[in-house]
Amino acid sequence: MSVITNVNNFLNGIVWGPVGLALLFFAGLWMTIRTNAFQIVHFHHWMKRTIGAIFTNKHVTKHTHKEDRAISQFQSLCTALAATIGTGNIVGVSTAIISGGPGAIFWMWIMALLGMMTNYSENVLGIYYRRKNNKGEWSGGAMYYLSEGLGAKKNCKIIGKVLAILFSLFCVLASFGIGNIAQVNSIAGNMQSAFSIPTWATGIALVIIGGLVIVGGIKRIASVTEKLVPFMAVIYIVGALVVVFAHGSAIPAAFASIFRGAFAAKAVGGGIVGYGIKSAITWGFKRGAFSNEAGLGSSVMVHSSSNVKEPVQQGMWGIFEVFMDTIIVCTLTALVVLTSGMVNLDTGAMASDVPGSALVGQAFGAVFGNVGPMFIAVAILLFAFSTVLGWSHYGTKSIEYLFGEKIVVPYRLIFVCMSFFSATMDLTLAWDLSDTFNGLMMIPNLIGVLALSGTVVKITHNYINRTFHGSTEEPMLSAYADIQKMQEQAKEK
Fold it and tell me: Who contacts 488 (Cβ-Cβ below 8 Å, separation ≥6)?
């Protein structure tokens, strides 16, 4: 066991250490530069075409007919948000503040701003290189743009295939870890502490409910998440806003503490040593990436199941996904903690010694009384369960790529049954391993994104020219359609 722990610590140090975080930062910065800061320059456009379109374009929310295995754009967003809006938005943010000080939130914002373009690029490539399986379902993700995109480059066929296999393998393992063990364990622990519900009872309930949804595949998962995600997000946002505005006079000081802490070279005014720039950057980047998953290549697998045809359109949903997860939900969690007196806003020192998992509950309790911790327990239940649903699809697509469609149903059954053991066992090592496998997905995925950045730029410029400059050039919609078109043109010549 000690050998496994040592190997895990070594790998975790690589993927979530300075090297991995630097790679994640560089990828987001590179794609931002190469697309001329699309997420900033065209802010109004992508907001209008995503959250705005929900109210103006019925095609965005319209369900596909029964025979069509694709899902709507709104369903793909909700399923992706189901996987990203999880315990990281509550526990992860409070842990970042405890370990990195209020300044960690600033660097979380920076990682999110750059991560928008990483997520955008993943989804553009996901739509462009996706294909349909024998059931008529769309299959897309890093494994496909690694094998078909990177693999199509000169002398890169083998490396593209190897990286695709590694990504899929890491994703399957991560689906059991971060997508099941970490989430279900949090649910069971919170239900026991808040409502005295035995962990075994929670485990059985999650196996039954999860089984009814997950075994039904992406259509059923999407139909649940499109109802669950808006509900849980609105309820949490409203509750958080009540807490923040109840301490409205502390809001300016909270923001001042965030900006001051982001650039504090050392502890000041008796604050805890370690709340310096390095600590703030490390924890801000780490928790930001852990929360919105931009750069991991995970959510692209569900975005690729959308009925959209335009790669950039789904890319913009990817931008909004990161915006919603980190800029909105994570920021509100941070303000809840900072305005509630849990942190000394002058020094950055913690005024409470409770762990991250209870910090937000205590902050809610200051306004809602005994209902506060119960509210957070229910929020974690909804957030974590939705994450389980989203990651079950990620694991499904990865196992399908590795072994074919025949293994999908057995995988789903094992995944569902795993929930019982996740709820009832001490899974400390499994928690650590899940963090590592989650991070390991990032390496092959970012290699693919950076190697195919030219393709993302071409597709983006094609869209911008047609949308803003009246160009009549043909849209770039699918790699396979483009290849077929070139082959037909070659025959005509």
Answer: none
Statement: residue 90 has pLDDT above 70: yes
Question: Left if phi > 0, otherwise alpha if psi is -120 to 50, otherwise beta: which for 19?
Answer: alpha
| Residue 65 to residue 51: CA distance in whole angstroms | 23
Calpha distance 279→99 (Å, rounded): 7
Angle between helical axes of 311-322 and 73-84 (0-180°, round to 10): 30
Q: How far apart are CA 289 and CA 440, in angstroms?
A: 13
Is the pLDDT score of 356 beyond 80? no
- 230 burial via Cβ count (<10 Å: 0-12, 13-18, 19+): middle
How far, in Å, CA of 260 to CA of 292, rounded? 24
- Record the tokens describing residue 476, joined without a space: 């770039």
Reading the block at residue 188, the tokens are: 């069971």
71: β partners: 306
Q: Which helix (H) or strand (E) holds 358?
A: helix 356-368
- Helix orientation angle between 371-403 and 157-176, rounded to the nearest 10 degrees: 140
Give the model confidence (pLDDT) of 300-347 as tens digits: 888 888 778 889 988 998 898 899 888 888 899 889 888 888 777 776
Best-predicted range by mean pLDDT (28-32, 106-110, 280-284, 395-399): 28-32
Length in residues, the chain:
493
Higher-confidence residue of 66 and 184: namely 184
Residue whose pair of structure tokens reads 């890491």 in the numeric block: 170
pTM of whole model > 0.70? yes
Residue with tokens 């693919």: 448
Alpha carbon distance 425, 421 (integer Å): 6
